[in-house]
Write a structure and sequence with these properties.
Blueprint (H helix, E strand, L loop, with lengths): L6 E5 L5 E6 H4 L6 E10 L5 E6 L10 E3 L1 E4 L6 H13 L7 E9 L4 E10 L11 E7 L1 H7 L7 H12 L1
Parallel strand pairs: 3-8
Antiparallel strand pairs: 1-2, 3-4, 3-6, 4-5, 4-9, 7-8
Length: about 170
Amino acid sequence: MSTKVEWFPLVDEQGTVIGKATRTECHSGSFLLHPVVHLHLFNTKGELYLQKRSMTKDIQPGKWDTAVGGHVDYGETIEEALYREIREEIGIATITPSFLKIYPFRSNVEFELVNTFKAVSDIVPAPDPSELDDGRFWSLSEIEANLGKDVFTPNFESEYRLLFME
């Protein structure tokens, strides 16, 4: 049985593609900078939808995270990756995200250039059980009451503080 190798673009801090590497190489502690997309999905009540990462994920399994988060594949634009991840992770095809911010994030195993977006919709996400373990809308006060309690991914916590608390 052959396993498909996933290739990610390597980028500089402006997002210009300067090479490519495999998922394994990018997640091995090499700290090769590679782009990802995140979508913060709010409903009209101001609640934020979060996904519970699958226990089979190689990074931060079982933690609550942004509504949509995923890697950009080599040869794919940021927008193509964003819409692909939205369809794959929460099953919505009819939202219009707006750009928020791009920033570098370094964890203990990888280095990502995070492209963040926001959308508002009352469409109830239909998460793919092969991608996510759960998903629901959280009030901002509920999120803030759980910060620092090992409920969320470190990336989500730092991004939430960066985007919504400053």
